[in-house]
Structure prediction request, 183 residues.
Amino acid sequence: MREIRFLLKNEKGSVMVVGMLVLMLASLIGIAAITTSSIEVEVTANDKTHKENFYRAEGAAMLAAQLLEDEKDSGALQDLPYGQPDPDNPAAPPDLWFRNDLSGFPDPDNVTNDYNWDASLDSSGEAPLDDNGQTRFMAIHEGYSGGSSTRMDATAVHTITVYGRSEKEKGSAMIEIGYKKRY
Prediction:
């Protein structure tokens, strides 16, 4: 019994035990901090990719709207599908990015389907917003706008849905905007 009391009162080596516990606690805090920071880096990278895709898609949709706005030949816009020739390669057939509907597309019921945006199809125009050609646009003629003139000799207001899409790294974004043009 006396020996047990002596061992309990003996404090030799207790500093080492306390020191080991403090080191273990500091190691756990360090590991938790590293894990948290690496997750934050991944979240930030994903957010950056999403924002880049979003703004490129928006830029592509705005480019399509500007191309429609700049087209002065209203007859060309009525002869759908429509697309402007590539100024760098005028002999190549144009991407027919302005259409009446999605008929002839791989998935005509779903404009968001990746196959509808395939660059090998002539269904969407390439927006010069990136180097890899993954930012594209298209426009669908929805019909005449309500309240526009029904006179045969007058121009009508057309309702058009303009789409922009960007695909980069591990993400993609698509923008849909409404557009009206009188022609």
